[in-house]
Structure formats: structure tokens, C-alpha cells
Amino acid sequence: MSAMAGFATALTFVWLGMVLAISFLEAPLKFRAPGVTLPIGLGIGRLVFRALNGVEVVLAIAIVVALLLGDSPGWAITAICIADLALLTQLVAVRPQLTKRSDAVLAAGPNAVPASRSRAHYGYVALELVKVLSLIVAGIVLLAG
């Protein structure tokens, strides 16, 4: 494995770990913590996901550069491109809708409870699953070299 492929592999698994830890562990658990109200949970979520998405953009760019500079398998490049496209879709199409929805929930007051999750939320989760699967494939292909 070349140095660039090794670098891309490491970054791929770091990205995967971050998405799994934050999206599928931290996000659902924060609302179960004692004293965490919906407004507090939404505020925490906004900060955490803004930070996560920022780091994801840096990782996505770094991985693509490493893959392009190294001798990387085509399947790895394809899988990373799928993960990058899922991230871009989240940032451009889904996050603005989630922000609008959370603004409305927060404006309704601390005792207001939304009737259900928005479709945008389900879309975000679906795109997270796409990213996870793509990153797993990319990591495995890169390791197999």
C-alpha cells in the first residue's frame, strides 16, 4: 500500500467513526439525558452537526486528494465519491430544511412538541446510511489494495 493510499484509508475510517459515533450514538442519546429539553437538545444538535459537517468536508477533500495522488483502486474512488455526494446533498439540500424546521420548533416555545419528525430528518438519516456504507466499502477496498 502506498503512503497516499494508507493516508486515504486512515482518513476514511476516521470519517466513518465520526459519523457512526455522532449520528448513530450521540444524536439519539442526547434527548434521553436527564434535564435535556427539546430546545437544549436542538441547540446541542445544531452545534455538533455543524462541527461534524465541517470536519467531514475537510476529510472528504483530503481523501479525494490522497486518492488522486496515489495509485488507488477505482472502486475506492467511486465509493468515496458517493460518500462525498451524500455529504454535499446533506449540506445543500437537507440541512437548510432541518434548520428551518428547528427554528420553527424553537420559536414555538419550550413546551411545544412537534407532531412528528420532518421528512428532511429521515432524508438526512438515509444519507448518513449511504455515507456509512460507502465509507465501509472504500475502506475495505483500500485495505485490500
Observed structural traits:
single chain; 145 residues; mainly alpha
- Continuous helix count: 4
From the N-terminal CA to the C-terminal CA, the straight-line distance is 6 Å
Oligomer kind:
single chain
Order of helices and strands: HHHH
What is the mean predicted local confidence, pLDDT? Answer: 91
How many strands in all?
Answer: 0
Parts with pLDDT < 50 across at least 5 consecutive residues = none
Overall tally of domains:
1
Principal-axis shape equals elongated
- Cα-atom radius of gyration: 17 Å
In short:
With 145 residues, the protein is mostly helical.
SSE arrangement:
Elements: H1 3-30, H2 38-69, H3 74-107, H4 119-144
Keywords: Membrane, Transmembrane, Transmembrane helix
Protein name: DUF4149 domain-containing protein
Transmembrane segments: 6-27, 47-69, 75-94, 124-144
Describe the fold and architecture.
With 145 residues, the protein is mainly α. The chain has one domain. It contains four helices and no strands. The protein has helices at residues 3-30, 38-69, 74-107, 119-144. The longest helix has 34 residues, at 74-107. The protein starts with a helix and ends with a helix. The mean pLDDT is 91. This is DUF4149 domain-containing protein.
